Amino acid sequence: MQQIYLDNASTSFPKPREVSDAVYHYMTGVGSNIGRGGYASAYAAEEAVFAARQLLCDFFGGEDPKNVVFTKNITEALNVLLRGLLQPGDHVLVSAMEHNAVMRPLQLLGHELAADEQPSAAITFSRVPCDREGNLELEYLPKLVRPNTKAIVMTHASNVCGTLLPLEQVSAFCKEHGLLFIVDSAQSAGVFPLDMQKMGLDALAFTGHKGLLGPQGMGGFILREHMVERVRPLMVGGTGSMSHTERTPAFMPDKFEAGTLNLPGIVGLAAGVRWLKERGLERIRAHELALTGQLLVGLAALEQQGLLRVVGRKDITRRTSVVSIADTTQDIAMVAHKLATEYGIATRVGLHCAPNAHKTLGTYPTGTLRFSMGWHNTPEEVAVALQTLEEVLRHGV
Prior knowledge:
Elements: E1 4-5, H1 17-30, H2 40-59, E2 68-71, H3 74-85, E3 91-95, H4 100-113, E4 124-128, H5 141-144, E5 149-155, H6 167-177, E6 180-184, H7 196-199, E7 203-207, E8 219-223, H8 263-279, H9 281-304, E9 309-311, E10 322-326, H10 332-343, E11 345-346, E12 348-350, H11 355-361, E13 368-372, H12 379-395
Parallel strand pairs: 1-11, 3-4, 3-5, 5-6, 6-7
Antiparallel strand pairs: 2-8, 7-8, 9-10, 10-13, 12-13
Helix pairs in contact: 1-8, 2-8, 3-4, 9-12, 10-12
């Protein structure tokens, strides 16, 4: 059975051949660690990693390649940023559409510091409301800022319904109120251009395995220079530098990169980003949004027949290729199961690690069935998915 893969918001597939080739070449032709050897392959490894930092710095409009830090995923990156930046008594703003990669660290920080004897030490947050399409309601921002508000932490795009949040307007608000701005780019990096300096972002977290087309187990964050001293490392240990001391180096990127990095993943990620740059984000975005428009038109017809409800925005403006449906005539989990097992159509069903986003969209606790198109999908695949979905909804599971 041939698979139609429509779960690119979870992880992009298939990857470009250049990505697997780069990983294979590193594993078979280089293989060395960085910062630990004085021989040719070790130098080649260092050159490859530095090239990846430079590439990502340019891609995201960073200030200095040394401020590109590699982690195993964006969840780790966000944990480093939140746990390393926030101090007892700090308050932050988040959107109502955040993923648990933001919310669980904040919840944990709040509980850790909210001991009865020190209630004022708790790190707290307020949610900026979003409407039923996932659009941020900007008018609430000034009402939610407190004297102890330090930052706004916000996703660029919802992983549930695809709605883009207004980074430029929020950045301007942060600048006006002296707040830091930390952005989760998990669902937008590799499709929408992001420039930290032009957009006024203080820290950007990214993942490698979604729109950047790299391997799983690869992510990171980029800091503006003024953030380097403000963020404490989450994990420390050997870095291959300053081995004469047991103190963690204060310079970048060693400050945050203890232990052996996922070096094959880094070169694979770099290959994915080069592939994107060669084709152009505008071309990729146009292709994905064309497929999204095709899917939305077909789903609108099924919605008019009472077979389902489209969640979030119903056009291709201010959105990614993520589309969710709810209120189907059949059990939504069973629909997803039948699409996968009988027709080879891969989607994702449930709450997508974003419970408050579903509460905002009116789809909690059942969740949604999510489609997410990527560069390798075709109009023919979308047509088959629509036809199959209609058949399943009409004839039952």
